[in-house]
UniProtKB/TrEMBL annotation:
Domain (M23ase beta-sheet core): residue spans on this chain: 311-403
Keyword Coiled coil on entry: yes
Provenance organism: Neotamlana sargassicola
Chain coiled-coil ranges: 24-61, 87-121, 179-245
Source species taxonomy: Bacteria, Pseudomonadati, Bacteroidota, Flavobacteriia, Flavobacteriales
UniProt-listed SUPFAM superfamilies: Duplicated hybrid motif
Pfam families: Peptidase_M23
Protein name (record): Peptidoglycan DD-metalloendopeptidase family protein
Keyword Coiled coil: yes
Source taxon at top rank: Bacteria
Length: 410
């Protein structure tokens, strides 16, 4: 019965230890994830500020200014949110360590009390003659052997208690140091967050002033937005026409119906498409630096909420002279040149296509094999406002995909 109870107690203690260790490990991982995300957001804000500084001499349109401020407000808000999560997690860890310190101090005090009692008892019987007499007064050899074992065990226990006191003292010191570092880290986060909140407040005031200015002449801006959307639709319709023609051509070549809506793939193209699919969410961005100034899909326009805009891809604002990179191995299937439209490069990856719009320079030609991150051109910079924007599309056959689902941390 005693054995069963002891076993149960041991199992409970082991389970509690495992749960505590798992919780600490989980909190550490969460803290690392939050810190990584915080640094990413801070880097993005630095990029935004750099892009703004590089183009400060250019007269940007108010539409572009609103888009830029909107994005920065979003990033700043996310930074504040992530920093608050870090501070809250640190608060929980600080509270946990404060409790741990209290428990350790009590445990250390108990150990010292026990050790002091042993020292007193040992002092009273420190006389070697007392120990010998204790052994010689045994009734028989067995009792003498037991008493000898007791003396040895008592000495070992004293030594172990001393080691426990030392270990607990070191643990208490380490926990105190960790607590001080956590409190310092929390104070740093709070101070940084206050500064970010000031920046956010200033950007919101700028956004409000821009919107008030735009509202005075909203009809003109609405007309510009509609004209821009019509131009985007025209280009996207031409891209769709080219993709469908390429699909029909691949099926005719393979001896299949030209009315098929999917590419007829060779064995090599099937492998390429499979590799492309397996890299979903891990593909590199088509530019080295930048931020998404327009997301994928149908959405309300940030200036005129009555207008709906459609985006078959994403728009990435980057820096002047930015090179365009292939997001995966493939073959240049088309270089599209339209009247009053900057060059467009289309790369096939089996039955997937990556499409790069608004280039000023093109380094490749139709039929070229390209590799992941290979430079294929340069993004066009608008001389009137200094904006450098790449429009980027991913399509499976003729169906557009959300690039955010494919590119790493978009």
């Amino acid at each position: 019965m005693n054995f069963t109870i002891k076993s149960y107690v041991k199992e409970c203690v082991l389970l509690a230890f495992i749960l505590a260790s798992t919780m600490v490990f989980s909190q550490n991982n969460k803290q690392k994830e939050l810190e990584t995300r915080r640094q990413e957001l801070r880097n993005e804000i630095q990029q935004l500020n750099k892009l703004r500084a590089d183009n400060k001499t250019k007269q940007k349109s108010q539409l572009s200014l609103v888009e830029g401020v909107n994005h920065k407000i979003s990033v700043l808000s996310n930074l504040i949110k992530v920093t608050n999560q870090q501070a809250n997690l640190l608060t929980r860890e600080i509270n946990s360590n404060q409790k741990k310190i209290t428990d350790l101090r009590k445990e250390l005090a108990d150990l010292k009390d026990d050790y002091a009692a042993m020292v007193v008892k040992a002092y009273k019987s420190k006389n070697r003659q007392s120990r010998i007499m204790f052994l010689l007064s045994s009734n028989n050899f067995k009792q003498a052997y037991k008493r000898l074992q007791y003396i040895q065990q008592y000495a070992d226990h004293q030594k172990k208690q001393g080691e426990n006191i030392k270990a607990k003292t070191l643990e208490l010191q380490a926990t105190n140091t960790k607590l001080l570092n956590q409190q310092k880290e929390k104070n740093t986060l709070i101070a940084e967050n206050r500064q970010v909140q000031k920046t956010l407040q200033a950007d919101r005031k700028e956004h409000e002033a821009l919107m008030q200015s735009i509202q005075k002449n909203l009809s003109t801006y609405t007309s510009q937005i509609r004209q821009k959307q019509r131009e985007v639709n025209r280009i996207d319709a031409e891209i769709d026409k080219i993709i469908k023609a390429a699909i029909a051509k691949s099926n005719t070549k393979a001896g299949k119906s030209s009315s098929s809506k999917s590419f007829a793939l060779t064995p090599e193209e099937k492998v390429l498409a499979s590799n492309f699919t397996s890299n979903r969410g891990k593909l590199p961005w088509p530019v080295d630096n930048g931020y998404v100034s327009l997301g994928y899909g149908t959405q309300r326009h940030p200036i005129d909420k009555s207008l709906t805009i459609k985006s078959n891809g994403v728009r990435i604002t980057t820096q002047k002279g930015a090179q365009v990179r292939a997001i995966f191995n493939g073959e240049v299937s088309e270089i599209l040149k339209m009247r009053n439209v900057n060059p467009i490069v289309m790369i096939r990856h089996g039955n997937y296509l990556s499409i790069y719009k608004n280039l000023s320079k093109v380094y490749v030609k139709v039929g070229d094999k390209v590799s992941t991150k290979q430079a294929i051109g340069e993004v066009f910079t608008n001389p009137s406002n200094g904006e450098t924007i790449l429009s980027f599309i991913i399509s499976k056959d003729s169906n557009t995909q959300n690039p955010a689902s494919w590119l790493y941390k978009m």
